[in-house]
Design a protein that fits this description.
- The protein is mainly alpha-helical.
- 67% of the residues lie in helices and 0% in strands.
- It contains four helices and no strands.
- The longest helix has 26 residues.
- It is elongated.
- The chain starts with a helix and ends in a 19-residue tail after the last helix.
Length: 106
Amino acid sequence: MLASAATPMAPPICWTEVNSLLADHAPARYRTEVFAWLNTFMWAGYGLGTAVAGQLTGPLDTGTTAFGAAAAAAIAGAILATVAARSAPPLPAQGQSRESDHVDDN
């Protein structure tokens, strides 16, 4: 019951964490661009998802095809995120600055 009560809160919490991670790990001079790309891809995904869902469902459809496509997209996203995380360079240790965070570089 507790999990079902917290489900509506999951998206806002997730997006707060995504924004915090981006702000913490993006070089200072690229932060605006990072958030611009995040929003660009987010809205493109909403549009693409709506268009695909509209093609996969109909008035008498049970939605099985649409749910299958959503599951396949989620699995593909998880695989892509795992591959990207493994190929990313390690982050600097706590307290160390990144080269691009220096005032002269910004």
